Amino acid sequence: MTFLLIVITAILVLYTGYIHKTLMHAIAYLAVMWICSLFVDIYAIKRHAKNDFKVDNPKKETIYFFICFLAGLLFLYIRFIWVIDWQHLKPIIKLGIIPLFIFVFPIALAIIMLLLKYKPTDLGMRLQGLIIVIPIIAISAISNRIVSP
Hints:
Elements: H1 2-19, H2 23-46, H3 58-81, H4 91-97, H5 107-115, H6 133-147
Helix pairs in contact: 1-2, 2-6, 3-5
């Protein structure tokens, strides 16, 4: 199933690149993501994680996750899909909607978990494996510079 989803995603990326006349960018993107995934997989095979994620109350934490996920979707819906044009929306309404942005990425969820007495290491924030980020950033930056100068 995972392989099928990866193939479908790759086909959609190539199709979008073809439609927008940026097929070379799409091919470069897929190649870079493949190389970076390969580096991460090789690193994960050689260095195993030292500890597992802690789950104290699965039901409550799942509810928090879905609330944060839905709040993030609400922000994206209002910002990009809503019938009312964002550019012509009253500033006071925009000001009320902007705080939902922290739900788009798991920032709010991390804050909630920290308030529930989880430590950053319990949430997966560790220095272990950070070294693999350097070649991934370098490969992405170099390919971006080559393909889109």
